[in-house]
Amino acid sequence: MSNTAFEGLARATPTRVRRRLRSLSDRAIAWIFVTPTIILLLAINIFPLIWTIRLSFTNYRVNRPNNDVDWVGLDNYRRILGDANIWNTMQATAHFLIWTIVLQVLIGFALAYLINKKFRGNDLWTTLIVLPMMLSPAVVGNFWTFLYEPQIGLFNYAIGFLTGADPASFSMIAEVPLAPWAIVIVDTWMWTPFVMLICLAGLRSIPPSIYEAAECDRAGKWRQFWTITIPMVLPFLMLAVLFRGIENFKMFDLVVQLTGGGPGSTTELTSINLKREAFEKWRTGYASAYAVMLFVTVFGLASIYVKALNKVKER
Questions:
Q1: At what angle do helices 122-130 and 179-204 cross, to 10 degrees?
Q2: Mean pLDDT across the stretch 129-140?
Q3: Start-end of H helices in the chain
Q4: What pLDDT does residue 301 have?
Q5: Could you give the CA distance from residue 52 to residue 73 in angstroms, rounded to a whole number?
Q6: Are 198 and 236 within 8 A, CB to CB?
Q7: Which of 28-32, 85-89, 125-129 has the largest mean confidence?
Q8: Which of 107, 177, 253, 297 would bridge with 137, disulfide CB 3.0–4.6 Å?
């Protein structure tokens, strides 16, 4: 807007309103700008959370809203803790979570360490490595579904070339022993670049003078790596683990596109199981208790982890 427009707007403002605006403190003006955001946050996040907690103590079913809703107390939570199917999904989630984090941290740090060494084509390789994380999980899921096809998939042919096995003799997403590893491989391929970027930021934050001082003290490369590089990059590594741990605990779309939770329930993660309880079996109260327990688990573990991360930063 031009100055003329602003002047016209100011003249059109009533005198009483202008006086009140001029008398506002910086704190009051800050609240004027922040209040809409707080209201939106309450409407989108806080209210649904409170409503979910309330529903978790009832037998409410969203597909039968006119039926009587009974207060069942902690029955939903007891049923969840005693449900063997849920513990199986938790085991599948733990397998997926642990292996993806381990592989992404190891490969991501190794790539960051290599890229941190200046060489010809450094920028080009960095761009190519980062490309997978820019894609949509749905696109990645469909893409890898074709790669995993036993008859035409390049993945099977690559494994057959390396091991001598018949490419059509196995299916990564249709066999119980292989399906969990299929989703681990895809998630690692997609999100290792994210861990690499965080580690690269940590490596480039280390002052060169520290390495120069270590060389003056006749410290070898291996000793510099373990006494300088690892301790100074550790907070960045832990931050990457925190981000990927939270994201992978609620992983949904990628696994649905790849396996749909199958074969059977081999790759049925907690997020997929929760969706089935809520929108296929329509046990809304039960699913609400399930969601609350998952939220408390993630929040509690993340809080403990953040405290550990803060202690590492203070060292």
A1: 140
A2: 90
A3: 3-12, 15-22, 26-41, 47-55, 75-81, 84-116, 122-130, 137-147, 154-163, 179-204, 208-216, 221-224, 230-249, 253-258, 270-279, 284-314
A4: 92
A5: 14
A6: yes
A7: 85-89
A8: 253
Check whether 19 has a pLDDT greater than 70.
Answer: no
In this predicted model, which residue has the larger pLDDT, 262 or 8? 262
Distances (CA, A) of 208 to 109, 212, 228, 265: 19, 6, 11, 51
Rounded distance, CA 122 to CA 130, Å? 12
Tokens of 109: 């740090």
pLDDT in tens, 31-84: 878 888 888 888 888 888 899 999 999 998 888 777 778 898 899 999 999 999
The total number of residues shown for the chain amounts to 315
Predicted local confidence at residue 33, as pLDDT = 80
Token digits of residue 164: 């001598």
Dihedral sign (CA 167, 170, 171, 172): negative
Amino acid at 227: T
Calculate the alpha carbon distances from 20 to 13, 25, 286 in Å.
Answer: 11, 10, 52
Between CA 269 and CA 255 the distance in angstroms is 8
- Alpha-carbon distance 280 to 257, whole Å? 18
Q: Residue 287: how many CB atoms within 10 A of its CB?
A: 26
Let me know: does 133 contact 244? Beta carbons within 8 Å. no
Q: Which residues of 215-244 are buried (b: 16+ CB within 10 A; e: fewer)?
A: eeeebeeeebeeebbeeebebbbbbbbbeb
Contact status, residue 196 vs residue 281, Cβ threshold 8 Å: no
Q: Mean pLDDT across the stretch 123-136? A: 89
Q: For 66-76, give one letter per residue: b (16+ CB within 10 A) or e.
A: eeeeeebeebb
Greater model confidence, 243 or 68: 243
* Chain mean position to CA 171: 27
In whole angstroms, give the CA distance from residue 277 to residue 261: 14
Q: What mean pLDDT comes out for the span 272-296?
A: 92
